[in-house]
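[Q] Does anyone have a clean structure-token version of this?
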Amino acid sequence: MATLLVRGKCPGVTALVLPRVGLCLFLFLCCGGAVSVVPHDHDPFQNPMTPPCLTCSTPSPSLRLLAALTFLNLGNLLGQRQITSEELTRLFLERLRRYNGILEAVVSYTEELAHAQAKRADELLAQGVYLGPLHGIPYGLKDIITLPRYHTTGGSTSFKDQVLNIDAWVYQRLKSAGAVLVAKLVSGSLAYDDIWFGGRTRNPWKMEEFTTGSSAGPAACTSAGSFSLLS
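[A] Here you go.
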């Protein structure tokens, strides 16, 4: 699993972000990560994307700020009915599409599935049914994890058209926990390196460098504020 240490500054706020880029799915444990405010006088991020400042075209500033929260924070807001899973899903899909032209981190969007799962998550919450901390949380799967109807490529040209009609155990567990799949993310070719058949996955905080290995796409997307949870 890959990890990025990134620094960035919003007007008046500086954040040190240790993004969650891996997930031990059967225990639902995130692999290192937090957001904390620290003094910092220099913003090294000098490209058009500004993930910590959340300057995407979502409906309101309050929704944009959600992209900086952990999945546990988002889960609390969902449980308190302060936000819906459908709103979160639209937010993170928009951020993925906005940044992917630069990051080259998404293999497939699962938008139709995501909206259906988010709607179901909201319906269950309205009925008083809570499935746990992942209930209604959007996430992305590495593109080495299978599910029906969508490509599982491993980033390889040899498998770029491959569709395996198998629900991977990992996906089944996340689905049963109420999580919402919005995309399949680059793993690098055969889960190695930063190059895959669709491009080369970039580090959003230092564009001349790249994210590599099986978590290449998850690392880039999380540190760009496009997810709070990945596998």
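[Q] Thanks! Anything notable?
[A] Residues 155 and 189 are 4 Å apart (CA to CA).
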